[in-house]
Amino acid sequence: MTGSAGPDAAQVEAVAHTVLLLGRLLLQNGADTGRVMSAVERVATAFGCEGHVLVTYESLLVTLVAGAHVRTRIGHRVPAMNVGLAAIEAVGRVVDDAARGVLGLDGVRRALEAVERRPPEYNHWLVAAALGLTAASLSRLFGGDWPAFAASWLAGFAGTWLRQALGRRGANPVAVAFAGSCFGGVIGGAAVRLGVSTTPSLCLIAPGMIIVPGVPFINGCLDMMRNLVTLGLSRLSFAALVTVTIGMGLFAATLVTGAAIPVEEPARVIPVAEDAVFSALAAAGYALLFDVRARIAWACVLCGVVSHTTRTIGVHLGVDLVAGTLIGALAAGFLAQGFAWHFRAPAVAFAFPGVVAMVPGSYAFRAVVGALAIERGAATPALAQATLALGIDVLLMVAAIAVGVAAPAVLGGRSRMG
Question: If we measure between CA atoms, which residue out of 298, 409, 307, 293 comes closest to residue 357?
Fold first, then answer.
């Protein structure tokens, strides 16, 4: 196709439409900006064009240059909340085939259209049940008792089912987060009112933690580290808005049920063996939510066990929680790079399910609850100090996760370039 004269105007136009579809699929499914830019440029080069990419939060702009022909195209609006790692893996294989010359332009376009039409790997009822188990496992990881485990599973399942139903109807993602957290919080709050648990706050908090947009948080931090400031700030702002909305949904649930979420609560550390079991269950739920293929889901679970259990071991040894989070994220990041090389799949497919359980949703929700209490006139020096400390902890732990995931990727990239 490229020939000695290079592609003509019609061929450049066809390449532009194809790479726009490619970039949109990656962004829709939660790929980081670096992967999107690299994939678009590789496919453009494979078909004789010089590609220049501008990724914004809601669109994709591509300029292709081939001799005297220049084409600039803007992609469609990109949804913000979807995560589909099976789709990212499939698109990566298409990019590799195009770069090796295995697929022509028509073949690339047909393969991408097939990825766009493919159904999810898992039934939505199975995903809802798995996310309920993830919420229940998170309650145990934070020191919850067995009644809190059961209440968190029910609340997490119900909240996920509602979010899925609203998502299929095209509801606003912020409204979906509020509705899901409020619905799950009401169920958890009802369990609190029944007095079935000795750790009542986790009946409310754990179901909300599974809604926290960990992937946008991490991708936003990665963008900032790569000096993609505008896009990074957009992703972080959206993720922060959703997290605050979840906190407000839980706060609304406390008003409905009369249950309370304390701003100050002592940290509980569970035994390492128990932490490993429930870290595995939590990571398995995220693997299903992120649509990870069954053949590599076990690797995601292993990353989750290694990251969270490493942090717990560090806390048992007296390591600060933020430092422990960084160490755990580094462990998951390096392990994900190894799995990516072995399975020839993107490292993100393993790293994200492995570290999302460490995203400090509980701290963020309690900070929101504290801020709302201050706004309602309940301000005291102790409450203000606790709320500020929680906010700082959230920022530091999110940054630690992002650095831990990014550092192995950067080192691996440099090694491959060498």
Answer: 307
Q: How far apart are CA 314 and CA 80, in angstroms?
A: 35
Q: Which of 392, 387, 389, 352 is nearest to 372 (CA)?
A: 387
pTM of the model: 0.84
Which three-class secondary structure string do you get for the chain?
A: CCCCCCCCHHHHHHHHHHHHHHHHHHHHCCCCHHHHHHHHHHHHHHCCCEEEEEECCCCEEEEEEECCEEEEEECCCCCCCCCCHHHHHHHHHHHHHHHHCCCCHHHHHHHHHHHHHCCCCCCHHHHHHHHHHHHHHHHHHCCCCHHHHHHHHHHHHHHHHHHHHHHHCCCCHHHHHHHHHHHHHHHHHHHHHHCCCCCHHHHHHHHHHCCCCHHHHHHHHHHHHCCCHHHHHHHHHHHHHHHHHHHHHHHHHHHHHCCCCCCCCCCCCCCHHHHHHHHHHHHHHHHHHCCCCHHHHHHHHHHHHHHHHHHHHHHHCCCCHHHHHHHHHHHHHHHHHHHHHHHCCCCHHHHHHHHHHHCCHHHHHHHHHHHHHHHCCCCCHHHHHHHHHHHHHHHHHHHHHHHHHHHHHHHHHHHHHC
Domain boundaries, the chain: 9-117, 124-417
The residue type found at 374 is I
pLDDT of residue 124: 92
CA–CA dist 91, 98 (Å, integer): 11
- Dihedral sign (CA 366, 240, 325, 302): positive
Quick one: which of 22, 99, 101 has its CA closest to 60?
22
Q: Which of 339, 241, 287 is nearest to 137 (CA)?
A: 287
Give the residue from 87, 71, 106 showing the smallest Cα distance to 23. Answer: 87
pLDDT of residue 376: 78
Q: Compute mean pLDDT per 10 residues along the chain, 418 residues long, and list them.
A: 65 91 87 84 92 83 88 73 80 92 93 92 93 94 92 96 90 91 94 89 88 79 80 86 89 88 80 93 90 87 93 92 92 88 73 80 83 79 87 88 81 45
